[in-house]
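Quick one:
INPUT:
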C-alpha cells in the first residue's frame, strides 16, 4: 500500500466542531514508511502541515488549510513488559483512545479508567496532556515515540522530556511542533485504589464498591449528562481552559463572590473552575447566538447547534472571553487549538 493523497478535501467531517473549509492536500498515513513519504511530499511542495487525529480539539478556518493535512491511521496495540504489579501498554497513535481505554478496563488494568469517553486518538493525548476526573496522561505515560518531520528520523521522548503541565506539553511549543507522535507507552497497574475523589464520582459510589469496570461506567454516565453527543452536535468539549490566578486576584474574587470555588495549584496560584464562573457569576449557561451557544448542561462546553461557521464560533468565544474579563478580571484562553489557514 502506498500513501493515499487526496486534493481539495472538505475538513468539516474531520472535526467534531463541524466547521472549516477545504484542505489543499489530505494524506492518510497507516505506517511509518507512509509517514516518511508524507514528510518528503511536504518538503518537496514547501507547504505547512497539520496532523489531524479525531479532530476533537481543533478549530479549522472557514478559508480552509492551504497546506497538507495528515490523517493519522497508525494502528496497533500490544502489551510489552509485565511485572507482578504492572504492565506497559504500547498503543499506535492513530488508535481511537476510548477503544484502548475500554480494552484495558476489560483486561483488568488500572490507570486509564478516569479518562473514559474522551474522543480522539491516542497520539493526541500527550499533546495537551489530556485529563479528566483527577487523572492526566502525564500520570500514566512512560514515554512516546515520535517522527521528526524535518529530519525524517525517529526519536523517543521520556515522560520528563514531554514537559507536561496542565493542558500543555513540549509538543505544543514551537520546537515541539515538528514531531509527529507515532506511539504512546502507558504504565498500567494490575491492582490499584479507585480515584473517586471528585464529588460527582463519590456520590455514585455511596455504599457501593467502586470496581474498575464500575468506575468506567460511572464516568461514561456522568459525562453523557454533561457533554452532548459529539457525533450528533458540533462540539470540542470544554472550549476554554480553567484559569489559574495569583493569590491577590483570588482574594479579591473571594470577597466579591464568596461562593466561588478555588483550588490551590501550587506556587501561590489558584485554579478556578470556569464552568462555575460562566454559570453562576456570568449567568451564561445555555446562552445562544444564532447557531453557537454554551451547552445547557455544562457552561464550559461550546456547541455548534447548526451550520455555524468558524468565524461565528470565534466571535462568540471572544464575547465570552470579554464578559468573563469584565466581571472577574480573569483572562481566559481557549483549550481548543485555532488552526491558521497556512
Ligand atoms: C465531547 C468532548 C469531550 C472532551 N473531553 C475532554 C476531557 O475531558 N479532557 C481533555 O483533556 N480533553 C477533552 N476533549 C478534547 C479532545 O478530545 C482531546 O484533546 C483529544 O485528545 C484530542 O484528540 P484528537 O485525536 O481529536 O486530536 P485533534 O483534534 O485531531 O488534534 C489536536 C491537536 O493535536 C495535534 N495532534 C494530533 N495527533 C497528533 C500526533 N499524532 N502527533 C502530533 N500532534 C498531533 C493536532 O495537530 C492538533 O494540534 C473533549 C472533546 C470533546 C469533543
Amino acid at each position: 500500500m502506498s500513501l493515499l493523497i487526496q486534493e481539495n478535501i472538505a475538513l468539516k467531517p474531520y472535526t467534531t466542531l463541524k466547521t472549516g473549509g477545504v484542505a489543499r492536500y489530505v494524506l492518510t498515513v497507516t505506517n511509518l514508511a507512509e509517514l516518511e513519504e508524507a514528510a518528503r511530499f511536504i518538503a518537496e511542495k514547501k507547504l505547512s502541515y497539520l496532523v489531524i487525529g479525531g479532530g476533537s480539539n481543533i478549530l479549522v478556518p472557514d478559508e480552509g488549510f492551504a497546506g497538507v493535512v495528515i490523517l493519522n491511521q497508525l494502528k496497533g496495540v500490544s502489551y510489552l513488559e509485565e511485572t507482578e504489579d504492572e504492565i506497559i501498554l504500547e498503543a499506535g497513535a492513530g488508535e481511537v483512545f476510548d477503544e484502548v481505554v475500554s480494552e484495558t478496563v476489560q483486561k483488568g488494568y488500572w490507570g486509564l479508567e478516569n479518562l473514559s469517553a474522551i474522543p480522539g486518538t491516542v497520539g493526541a493525548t500527550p499533546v495537551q496532556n489530556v485529563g479528566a476526573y483527577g487523572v492526566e496522561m502525564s500520570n500514566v505515560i512512560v514515554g512516546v515515540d515520535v517522527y521528526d518531520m524535518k529530519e525524517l528520523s525517529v526519536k523517543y521522548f521520556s515522560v520528563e522530556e514531554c514537559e507536561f503541565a496542565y493542558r500543555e506539553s513540549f509538543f505544543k511549543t514551537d520546537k515541539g511542533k515538528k514531531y509527529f507522535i507515532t506511539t504512546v507507552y502507558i504504565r498500567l497497574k494490575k491492582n490499584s485504589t479507585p480515584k473517586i475523589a471528585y464529588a460527582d464520582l463519590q456520590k455514585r459510589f455511596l455504599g457501593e464498591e467502586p470496581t474498575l469496570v464500575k468506575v468506567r461506567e460511572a464516568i461514561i454516565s456522568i459525562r453523557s449528562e454533561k457533554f452532548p453527543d459529539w457525533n450528533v452536535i458540533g462540539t470540542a468539549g470544554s472550549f476554554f481552559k480553567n484559569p489559574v490566578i495569583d493569590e491577590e486576584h483570588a482574594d479579591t474574587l473571594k470577597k466579591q463572590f464568596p461562593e466561588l470555588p478555588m483550588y490551590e495549584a501550587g506556587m501561590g496560584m489558584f485554579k478556578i473552575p470556569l464552568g462555575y464562573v460562566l454559570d453562576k457569576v456570568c449567568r451564561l449557561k445555555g446562552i445562544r447566538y444564532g447557531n453557537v451557544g454554551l451547552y445547557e448542561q455544562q457552561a464550559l462546553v461550546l456547541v455548534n447547534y447548526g451550520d455555524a461557521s468558524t468565524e461565528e464560533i470565534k466571535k462568540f468565544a471572544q464575547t465570552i472571553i470579554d464578559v468573563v474579563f469584565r466581571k472577574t478580571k480573569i483572562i481566559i484562553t481557549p483549550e481548543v487549538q485555532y488552526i491558521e489557514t497556512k
